[in-house]
């Protein structure tokens, strides 16, 4: 087992423990973990469960969706910044300067 797999398993187990303490089956934690997909996201959800003690499955799922949306927004922002950086690099490049002179 690789260190990444161990980390994922540890996070999943922590989530299962948190979910079990609320009276829900561990299989629910498996579904949540698979949906979130990363140890950091799984840890965030487990932390939420330990701190907020949500009253329903819906509240847990809502938090999971919120975490997924934050991750998606972060990725989009990162992609935008990288594209913007490449564009600025091109604007300041010799290639562009030479291209402008040919027009």
Description of the molecule:
The longest helix is centred in the C-terminal third of the chain and has 35 residues, at 57-91. The chain is mainly α and 103 residues long. It starts with a helix and ends with a helix. The protein contains five helices and no strands. Helices cover 85% and strands 0% of the residues.
Largest sheet: none
Unreliable stretches: none
Helix tally? 5
Shape: elongated
Mean pLDDT across residues: 91
| Rg on CA atoms, Å | 21 Å
- Rounded to the nearest angstrom, the distance between the terminal CA atoms is 58 Å
Given helix and strand content, the structural type is: mainly alpha
N-to-C series of helices and strands: HHHHH
Tell me roughly what share of residues is in helical segments: over 70%
Beta-strand residue percentage: under 5%
Task: Compute the number of strand runs.
Answer: 0
Question: How is the topology of this model organized?
Answer:
Blueprint: H1 3-21, H2 26-36, H3 39-52, H4 57-91, H5 94-102
Helix pairs in contact: 1-2, 1-3, 3-4
